[in-house]
Description:
Layout: H1 6-18, E1 22-31, E2 34-42, H2 49-66, E3 74-78, H3 89-94, E4 99-108, E5 111-121, E6 125-130, E7 133-138, E8 142-147
Parallel strand pairs: 2-3
Antiparallel strand pairs: 1-2, 4-5, 4-8, 5-6, 6-7
Helix pairs in contact: 1-2
Amino acid sequence: xxxxxxxxxxxxxxxxxxxxxxxxxxxxxxxxxxxxxxxxxxxxxxxxxxxxxxxxxxxxxxxxxxxxxxxxxxxxxxxxxxxxxxxxxxxxxxxxxxxxxxxxxxxxxxxxxxxxxxxxxxxxxxxxxxxxxxxxxxxxxxxxxxxxxxx
Length: 151
């Protein structure tokens, strides 16, 4: 999955949880030629801009001290939103039965994009039902996973 390097998550997760928030995950990516570290947080009450600012301030200090990323980047802290990203097997398990969109690093049966119901998770990956056809997708090929909002 398109997550930040493990060292980054190891540095910031304790700071996020120490403030009483759930650390959903972090992405490190390039957008419009700039590097961005995007950290997703959640809480039972939901997340507002003040929560994001508080967490941003806290993890900024941790990142400055630990310095797990040696290049210039922009830090963003966000709620997961309605199209919540999924980073870990535990998160996938939590959303079994929901509609997901997967983008793969390698094609499975000629496809790199899947949108369907998350049927199950297991040790090797997930099973997604797309229009009545089940696809077994290995954890190692999932580049990005998000919930698909249902209205």
